[in-house]
Structure formats: C-alpha cells, structure tokens
Design a protein that fits this description.
Elements (H helix, E strand, L loop, with lengths): L3 E7 L4 E6 L4 E5 H8 L3 H13 L1 H10 L2 H11 L5
Antiparallel strand pairs: 1-2, 2-3
Helix pairs in contact: 2-3, 2-4
C-alpha cells in the first residue's frame, strides 16, 4: 500500500478520509462498511470504537485486512460469539 500522509474521521460525512503520498484522496464510507460487514450491534460497536479511537487502524483493516474475520475474532475475545 502507498504511504498515508494524513487521515481523519469526518463526522459530517461519516467517512474516514485518507491522503496518500501520491496525492490520492480516499474516503471510506463507514456506514456502508458497517451495513456490509457488521451483523450485530456488538460488531458495529467494535467498528465504531476503531473509527473514533484509531481511524488509521480502521482504514488499514478495511483496505488491507479481513473485517469479517476481525469482527469474528473480536466477538470471540469478548465472549460474544454469534
């Protein structure tokens, strides 16, 4: 992945916005992601925590990771298996 120069969660658009070193601007629609991968309020809560507390980790999870597997593992670790 290209180097990320800046990132932030934009509350007005509900998007995590990234600026890459080559000038590319990416906007991740967090509502659309939640609708696609989160099946419960606990999973949505897990994603929300990342969005507000670590938007870079959230962006990397969505762009490079497996969010469904992450949410499964998070539920397991909290004793909330689906």
């Amino acid at each position: 992945m290209r180097k990320i120069l800046s990132y932030e969660f934009n509350l007005d658009t509900a998007c995590v916005e990234l600026c890459l070193e080559d000038g590319t601007l990416l906007s991740i629609d967090c509502t659309a992601v939640e609708n696609e991968v989160a099946n419960s309020m606990y999973q949505r809560s897990e994603l929300d925590w990342l969005i507000y507390n670590d938007p870079l980790a959230y962006a990397e999870l969505i762009l490079n990771g497996n969010p469904k597997e992450y949410l499964k593992n998070a539920a397991r670790s909290h004793g909330l298996e689906d």
